Amino acid sequence: MTTRIATRQLARLLGKEDLYRRLCLDKGSEPQGLTAEQLALVHALVDERLGELLFGLAVETVASDDVIDAASALDYLEDRLSFLRELLTEEQRERIRRDFRDLVARWG
After folding, report:
1. CA 106 – CA 26 distance, rounded (Å)
2. Nearest residue to 77 (alpha-carbon basis) of 31, 92, 15
3. CA dist., res. 86 & res. 84, Å (int)
4. Which three-class secondary structure string do you get for the chain?
5. C-beta separation of 39 from 49 below 8 A
6. How far apart are CA 25 and CA 67, in angstroms?
7. Contact predicate 30/8, CB 8 Å
8. Distances (CA, A) of 31 to 3, 8, 45
9. C-alpha neighbours within 13 Å on the C-beta side of residue 93
10. Is residue 7 a contact partner of residue 34, using CB atoms and an 8 Å limit?
């Protein structure tokens, strides 16, 4: 199930303990799917930590062997945003895109 895997990856980027605590999950458990209420909690956490998420995505991008320039970095980001799509609002995705473009523009 994509949501479960995407939630696990988002938890890695934002902090597993905090995300899972907000979702009221027992320690060590993982969500099989998210309710509308849980998804709203995920969106709120992303809003609070958008900078951390952007940083984590940037670190992943730099570490990727497939990224060789700004264009491939933007392609990589789009793949990640597509994978996390169910967990992010369109506004959040757009903010990440905008800030990421600004970041990679400095790569030269």
Report:
1. 42
2. 92
3. 6
4. CHHHHHHHHHHHHHCHHHHHHHCCCCCCCCCCCCCHHHHHHHHHHHHHCHHHHHHHHHHHHHHCCCCCCHHHHHHHHHHHHHHCHHHCCHHHHHHHHHHHHHHHHCCC
5. no
6. 35
7. yes
8. 8, 9, 16
9. 15
10. yes
The full length of the chain comes to 108
**CB 58, CB 103: distance < 8 Å:** yes
Residue-wise pLDDT for 40-86, tens only, equals 999 999 999 999 999 999 999 999 999 999 999 999 999 999 999 99
**Local confidence band at 33 (pLDDT 50, 70, 90 cut-offs):** confident
Q: How far is CA 42 from CA 56, 74, 93, 101, in A?
A: 16, 24, 14, 24
Cβ–Cβ under 8 Å, residues 7 and 30: yes
Q: pTM of the entire structure? A: 0.89
